[in-house]
Each structure stands twice: as structure tokens, then as C-alpha cells.
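Action item from last week, closing it out:
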Amino acid sequence: MSQEQQIAIEERFARVFNDKSFKERLTSADFDKYVKAKKSLTFQKHDIIFEDGETPKGVYFLEKGAAKLSKSGAFGKDQILRFIKEGDIIGYRALLCGENFQAKAEAMTDVEATFLPAEIFMDLLEVDSQLSFVMLQKISYELGESSNTITFLAQKTVRERLAEILLLLEQKLGTDPEGFIKISLTREEIANIIGTATESAIRLISEFKGDQLIEVDGRNIKILNHDKLMKLGHVVL
């Protein structure tokens, strides 16, 4: 999926999933029920939003901050599945499937979230066709992301994976005023994402820096040459 299509889905969801839009579309009774049920929650960096295997009690809409979804492997090592940014909603897949969470959600920065209890979220999907449609689009998009991840890990070299993941992180999370990707990752987390040893990730980041593809400031990374990274990672954004 192109960056333009991804942005269009995100913008459509943002237009539909907000108090003003709900008030315009819902009946007074349904809107009042929604307003009374939603809760504002805060999480500090590294706080667990929900655990793998936990029974879902509702969904979480990130108002501010970023989080990650990860799954613990056979040897206890976490595999990062997806990053969640401001404006994203999480927890709905397990809820719709009627199963426990299949991943852990952890705050990567301080997070402010709106929590919607399961019953209210399911009621909204039943009475609000616009919300149902944008949720269907989000699910379809994330299914495509999962398919791309399988190809990404199976068919690309570690060097190509690093180039691609840096571009995708910048695309998804954006940059700060100085141009650094809006998330600081440890070398271990980067190695986790691209499926390699931490030592290999450290070496590759150093090589990318030496080739003037990126600038590194501690855990923060800025892309300096997008064209070369795209060619290196065989990426089309």
C-alpha cells in the first residue's frame, strides 16, 4: 500500500472516530451512553497497556504518545510486531474475534489514551455504519502489513531490512523539528525488528552512518539520504 493510501485511511478514521463526529451521527441516547462510558487513561513510558493472554475489556485510542505491540518467543525474547502512534486504536482485533490478546502492548513514551469498554465499542459498530466501514479498512490495511512483514523477514537481507524499517518508521511515526524519527529505539529493539543479533544491528547502523545515509544521536536516528535508502532496501513508498 502506498503512503498516500495509508494516510487517506488514517485521515478517514480520524474524521469518523471523534466526539464531534459521533454527536452528529449517533442518536442522543447512543451518544450519551458513549460519553459516559469512555475513560481517559495515562501510561508512563514502559507501562504495560495490556498483556499477552489477557482478556480484552475494551479498546484503546491513543490521543498522545507511541506504543508497541510485541510477542514473546520460545526463548523469552520479544518480537516487535507493530508500532502504535497518536491517532491509532488498539485492542479491537481480539475483541472482534472473541479471544484473548495475542500480543503485549507497551508504552514507548508517555501515553494518553481514551478507553472504550467492549460493550460500547461493539454497540457503536452496530449502529454507526461509517465507523464500521473505516474499521474494516483499518483491518484490511493491517492484514496487508502483516503479509508484507512475512515477505520482509523471509526474502530480504538484514541490510535491506534495516533500510526499509527506518523508512517505514519515519513514514508511520513522523519526525521531530530537527528531523529525527519520533521514537528512540535501543539497538536491541532495532535488531529485534529486523531479525538479527544486536551486534549486527550496531555494526549496520555504524555503516549507514559512515555512508552518510543516516545521522545518529544516541538512540535517535535521522534519515539523510532517502533515495539511497530506498534503493538499498528496494522500497517503494
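Closing note: The chain is about 50% helix and 20% strand.
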